[in-house]
Structure formats: C-alpha cells, structure tokens
Amino acid sequence: MNVEDFLLLETQLTDEERLIRDTVQKYVTKEVLPLMESSYEAGEFPRQFIKQTAELGLLGLTLPSEYGGAEASSVSYGLVCRELERGDSGLRSFVSVQSSLCMYPIFRFGSEEQRQKYLPKMAAGELIGCFGLTEPDAGSDPSSMRTTAKKVDGGYRLNGAKMWITNAPFADLAIVWAKTEDGIRGFIVERDFDGFSTPEIKHKLSLRASCTGEIVLEDVFVPDANLLPGSERGLSAPLSCLTQARFGIAWGAMGAAEACFDIATEYLINRKQFNKPLAGFQLVQAELAEMFSEITKAHCLNLQLGRLKDQDKATHVMVSMAKRNGCHHALDIARRCRNLLGGNGISLEYHVIRHMTNLESVFTYEGTHNVHTLTLGRHITGLNAFA
C-alpha cells in the first residue's frame, strides 16, 4: 500500500523525475528494506549501499556531467531523498552528506583542479567524504568553533575536533571548517594526512544503521592546494552547504513518514478487534486523516520549494520552513503510528520504531526545530532572537 497522490502532484513531475523516483523506489524495496532490520539491530551501515547508489547515479545527482553528476533537477534530488529515507534515514544521510555537504562545497567553492581531482571519484563512490562543522561545544552556534587553521609555509596547521560526523569513520576525505586569521575557511583534509583520525561513536539508539564518528585534528598539515579558495565568505559558505542538505532532509523525512503511514494503514485494515477492523473505529480514522493531511501538505510545500530552487528563487528561510515542517510532522506521524500498532509498534519487524528513533535525530541535526523556528521568526519580524 502506498500513500495516495491525493492532489495529483504526479502530474506536475517530468518523465525524467518519475523515472528517477521509480528506479530508486524499486532499489529500496528490493535491496535496502530486506537488510534494514538486521543492520539496525547490529548497528552497522551496509557498505554495499555505497557502490549501489553510485551505480544508480545518486551521488552528486544535480552536478554537471563533467564532474560525474547527472544534471538532474532539484525535485529529482528531493524525490531520491524521499525514497531513500523510506528505506532508512541512515541511507539518505549517507547520500545527502556525500552529495550536499561534500561534493557541493568542492563544486561551488573549490578550484577547477580540485573539482577534477575529487568529484568524478566521489560520484563513482571511489572516494567518500564527510563534513566537519559541528564541534563538541559548538552545535547550533558554529561561530564559536574552536578548530583553528594556522598559516605555515606551504599550507596550514589544523587543530581541533568535530563531533557527530556522518560517514567519518570510513571517509576518505573531510570538508573541515576552521578559523583562520582571515575568518572561517574550508579545507579538504585527506585520510592519510598525519594527525587526522575519525573514531567511531558507539552506543547510539538512533540512526543505528548509519556510521557516525568524530574528527580529531592534531597538528594536521594541509597543503595550500587543499584550501577551498571560494570559501572566503566566513560562515556563509558552510551554511550554504547546510541549506543544500536541509532541502533533502525536508523531502527525506516525509519518506520515513510515508513508510510509517503505509505500514500502519495496512495493519489497521487487516487487524480486527471487537469483531471489526481497527481501521473502522472513529478515533483510528481521526488519526489517519490527520497524518494523511500532513503528508499531503508537506509534499505540496516540498514540490514548490524544489521548483523555486531550480529557478534559483529559493531562499535559506524557505528551506528552513520545509526542514522544520517535514521533521516535525514526520516524527509526530511515526509516534502516532507506533501507538496505533500497539505492542507490535516496538518490533523491528514492522519498521515503525526504527523510523521513529531515526527521526529523533533527523529532527535535531542540521538545525534543530528551535533554530529553524527562530530563523522564520527573524524573517517575519526582522528581529534577531538568537542572542
């Protein structure tokens, strides 16, 4: 069972967008879902997903073909994120980090030499990246970062630490943001640089099928050639990368919500109590109507945002609204569905509890709900309530 296209949004997609979506949907159903129960329980990211997503052309999907991209629309990327997160938030996170947080900054802020050196291999899944902005003591306030890059002959010396970094334990390179005498700059830090390490974070109860770690920088020498030359705009550069990723999260969260809704609806129609299907009770139908409405509304918001993004008319505030909306309602839907499944709601066999715990992280990362609320509040009032 799939959520009904109640407002006929399918008619607004191009043939290419439908093809991309359907291809990823089949991939998730055939290759991803059968592995997620055991992967989540074991706390392991299935490494075969790297090669598979690369072969499907999902890494750097919107980038020019000369760098390994598919030159697909932003809506296509959103649809991909939605389908991937229908499988698991960890898989969408992997693709999102590789594409939006690593390939995008190299494409936008890197030199042509850097683009040619890294992007084709990243699109092919031969090089995996991670994004180092968040620190142990600097999450929502990245301007207070303590990681530094001191200019020395031929390059920079980096010292500091980053925390909660997706892909870090197996990444071949990291896009690291550090304070220099000239402001915050971006650097491509390669795995074999002395003093660079990425210990894995264990004992997570969310995003268990995602690989998360730290980045530790101990007097790491980074050559001048690995400085992102276009990153001299301070925090606006890393924040623009986050805007790219948040766009995908807005779509992805609703993929998880759809998965929970589909599972719960089928369960409620087939499960009988008091001699009739659970779906026949008024309180149950009220829950379904509420969830169905929010999923439909979120799809409208995301689709319009995608079209604006392809026209270069989308703003970071619009993306904040979509990320805030998608994560809030997706988590609420997952919790409602978990409740509607009763005791079965906590079983991995039904997947809902997995999506629900994942969404607890998605709700928080790349801008908490409160941060995006204040972003909208500042836009509405013109007054900054962050400090």
Secondary-structure content class = alpha+beta
Q: Give the CA-CA distance, first to last residue.
A: 47 Å
Per DSSP, what share of the residues sits in E-state strands of 2 or more residues?
5-15%
Overall geometric form: globular
How many strands, which pairing sense, and closed or not: the largest β-sheet?
Answer: 4 strands, antiparallel
Which key features would you list for this structure?
three-stranded mixed β-sheet, four-stranded antiparallel β-sheet, alpha+beta, 387 residues
Question: What is the gist of this entry?
Answer:
The protein is of the alpha+beta class and 387 residues long. The protein has helices at residues 15-42, 48-55, 74-87, 89-109, 112-123, 236-270, 282-310, 316-340, 352-364, 369-381, and strands at 129-132, 148-152, 155-166, 173-180, 183-190, 196-197, 212-223, 272-273, 276-277.
Can you put this structure into words, describing what you see?
- A hairpin with a 2-residue loop joins strand 4 and strand 5.
- The strands form 3 sheets. Strands 2-3-7-6 form a 4-stranded antiparallel beta sheet, with helices on one face. Strands 1-4-5 form a 3-stranded mixed beta sheet, with helices on one face. Strands 8-9 form a two-stranded antiparallel sheet.
- It is built from 10 helices and 9 strands.
- The longest helix is centred in the middle third of the chain and has 35 residues.
- The chain is globular, with a radius of gyration of 21 Å.
- It is α+β, with helices and mostly antiparallel strands.
